[in-house]
Automatic annotation (TrEMBL):
The gene is Cd3e. It is a single-pass type I membrane protein. It comes from Furnarius figulus. Residues 104-139 are annotated as: Disordered. GO terms for cellular component: alpha-beta T cell receptor complex; external side of plasma membrane. This is T-cell surface glycoprotein CD3 epsilon chain. Keywords: Cell membrane, Immunity, Immunoglobulin domain, Membrane, Receptor, Signal, Transmembrane, Transmembrane helix. It is found in: Cell membrane.
Amino acid sequence: EEFLVEISGTKVTITCPLTEDNIKWDGPGKIEDDNRKYILEDHDSSPTTLSCSAGSEKHELYLNARVCANCEELDALTITGIIAADILITLGVLILVYYFSKNRKGRASTSPAPRPRGQKTQRPPPVPNPDYEPIRKGQREVYAGLESRGF
């Protein structure tokens, strides 16, 4: 047999597992009309020890319940629905981003076109500038008149 504990806001209701009519409670709360239920109004979440007894039989309960005035209890179905809706919205955003980014590939852009990526091959040497042609062996006569002058 177990205690039945119900929490609603800051009100905690405990039902004793004993079925007799002359149940005696020991704790800081008040007893409801039918004597089996014990009510803690404005419980402050501090741990409390309660006991209910009838004749020689006694049951004790260590109550460590967290309560708050503005809390809302959610069932498993609500939480599952929230998570499923979040996943569906996220997938919808991903599909939209994919769709719009796919269409942008075909449009002309102001940025320079990327170089085609192929196999890395060696670049050919740059075309020589005829104004600065290097001196080759056998052609020194062209530059023979360019001797340094003594200043």
